[in-house]
From TrEMBL:
PROSITE patterns referenced in this protein's UniProt entry, alphabetically: MPN
GO molecular function, a single term: translation initiation factor activity
Superkingdom, natural source: Eukaryota
InterPro entries: EIF3F/CSN6-like_C, JAMM/MPN+_dom, MPN
Residues in MPN domain copies: 26-164
Gene3D superfamilies, A to Z: Cytidine Deaminase, domain 2 (3.40.140.10)
Name of the protein in its database record: MPN domain-containing protein
Pfam families documented for this protein: JAB (PF01398), MitMem_reg (PF13012)
Naturally occurring in which organism (per UniProt): Ascoidea rubescens DSM 1968
One annotated Gene Ontology cellular component of this protein: eukaryotic translation initiation factor 3 complex, eIF3m
């Protein structure tokens, strides 16, 4: 006999306090990413992946997570079960806390891109029964399956959410939701990586750094060349779309329309050179004034001491 009654289940208090995946912002520091890359080359026999702990900080409302470092945690996969070496995990955590007392566990990483039953079990280990605080799961795919050699790395970030009537420790009730992430790096780190990328194309995997020249000017010149190449690519793309050679992308068109009017596209080369030279002169004048004020302050301090 069919029933016309609709049964509703009241959400648990744990589920109601959980943060929505759309409100979580993840920032990854290069030091953590390099540690994970290195870990991907240390897969133990019998395991399909390397796992480890992500360390960093989180905001008071848990909406911003900063991943600063990572370390490997030993584990063993056997059948449908996985064993995590908790002693190894806590030992490394205590070592990190001695140098950085404010650092905390913000998630865990795995060196395969797929999500399976082991992912749920390991994730429950890091949740440790606290389902209200988001735990980031970072997956890395850096090995080419056809050649079993390192390839261009690809990584994604997820947070887990529980489905069902209650948040129980059940691997079948875990769903991993993709969340956006940002890789944070400085200009110095970018320049260093550019030299490393040049070395990988050499037969001896090395590159000779320039001597007797300003490294900053060389980096500036390389950056300007990259910008010039990007402008050529955009110009060629627009020409092909206008001529009907390829089909245009609406999102790319909207992006170009919103950004091009803000650029100085009506300025000639002579005007740009004049503005650039004026800017350099203003910068040099400020440096000269700052140096003069510093000298006067030091001289005044010495005269005061003599008197």
């Amino acid at each position: 006999m069919k029933s016309d009654i609709l049964h509703l289940v009241k959400p648990s208090s744990l589920a109601s306090t959980a943060l929505s995946p759309l409100t979580v912002n993840v920032v990854i520091q290069p030091t953590a990413l390099f540690s994970i890359f290195e870990a991907s080359l240390r897969i133990q026999e019998g395991n399909s992946r390397v796992i480890g702990t992500l360390l960093g900080s989180r905001s008071d409302d848990n909406s911003n997570i900063d991943i600063r470092d990572a370390y490997i945690v030993q584990h063993n996969e056997q059948g449908d079960n996985v064993t995590v070496n908790e002693y190894n995990h806590k030992t490394f955590l205590n070592i990190y806390k001695k140098t950085s007392p404010k650092i905390m566990i913000v998630g865990w990483f795995s060196t395969i891109s797929s999500l399976d039953i082991y992912s749920s079990l390991i994730n429950n280990f890091y949740l440790d029964g606290n389902y209200s605080i988001p735990i980031v799961h970072l997956t890395l795919d850096s090995i080419d399956p056809s050649s079993n050699l390192p390839s261009v790395p690809k990584f994604d970030t997820y947070i887990s959410t529980m489905v069902g009537k209650s948040a129980v420790n059940d691997q079948n009730s875990t769903v991993f939701v993709p969340i956006p992430h940002t890789l944070n790096y400085s200009s110095q780190e970018k320049n260093l990586l550019s030299w490393v990328s040049k070395a990988k194309d050499q037969s001896n995997s090395s590159v000779l750094l320039p001597s007797g020249q300003s490294t900053e000017l060389i980096n500036l010149s390389n950056d300007l060349k990259d910008v010039d190449d990007l402008i050529d690519k955009v110009s060629n793309y627009v020409s092909q779309v206008v001529n009907g050679e390829i089909e245009g992308d609406d999102e790319v068109g909207k992006y170009l329309l919103s950004n091009i009017p803000a650029s100085p596209n009506n300025l000639g080369i002579s005007k740009i050179e004049h503005l650039f030279n004026s800017h350099i002169q203003d910068t040099l004048m400020l440096e000269y004034l700052a140096s003069s004020i510093k000298t006067q302050i030091e001289l005044s301090a010495k005269l005061t001491t003599v008197v």
